[in-house]
Amino acid sequence: MAEKKGAKSKRDNSESKKGPKVKKPGKKGPKVEKPGKKGSKVATRPVSEAGYPNLVLCAVDAVFIQRGSLAATGPVCSLVAFGGSAKWKPAPHSAKFTTADLVMRLDGVGVSQLVSEVFGSDSKALGCPDLSRAQVVVELCRGLADAGILTKADARAPENRDAVMTVARSTRGIGAAGAARLVALAQEFEFSGAPWLTAHFAELLGREVTASEADALLEREAAERAKSTRGVSVRDVAFDIWRSRAGYSSKFRCV
Fold first, then answer.
1. What is the pLDDT of residues 9-46, one digit of tens each?
2. What is the mean pLDDT of the chain?
3. Residue with more model confidence, 72 or 182
């Protein structure tokens, strides 16, 4: 019996030394999102800041958009990939890449190489069989740069609002629809009573919606979002609806 007691005592001592295994805090447990990281960043960022990161990519989309298409991300991503492989600085997907940067880069690349290696030689501008769409992009960016409109921030400045449309409309091969698209992508845009807005709420409710009713529903939706997302305006929500109907994600990526 003494031996058994001793053996038991030995085991007890061993267990008391090691003790039961307790999971240490801060190791593998469930990940908890810290305040001030991803959640708050999304919540405080106006949705109208999303989309293409610079004015050059807005111009590419506006020139290359095809009738019936929702976006021209193919040509946009082609330019991003080309500039990345050529190690352009700043990179063409960066917010720092300006209209002047694209024009300057052509000194080393040339429009013909841009046509053949980036956009394709058979892509002609609408109504201008003597122009490639690549040439239209270059001339559009040149016109914007000459007017001092280098970035999306420049395009949104009150003193430049009319100038963006003027430059676009005076560029051969973009047309009225392309010019309007550039303004919508680069600037704040008119949405009150817009057909796409009434169509959105009509589809949502399953019935016809008037323009004034769509405006009221938009304001109501903006008020609801503002309860959980700081700084959201009616215009932000309108842009978010327009962008979702145009096939844009919350943040532009070329994959």
1. 444 554 445 555 554 544 444 343 333 333 333 222 33
2. 76
3. 182
User: Is the pTM above the cut of 0.85?
Assistant: no
Architecture of domain 48-186: Orthogonal Bundle (1.10)
* Domain ranges across the chain: 48-186, 192-245
Distance CA 60, CA 80 (A): 11
Using the CB atoms, write b or e for 26-55: b if 16+ within 10 Å.
eeeeeeeeeeeeeeeeeeebbbbebbbbbb
Residue 57 CA to residue 78 CA, distance in Å, equals 11
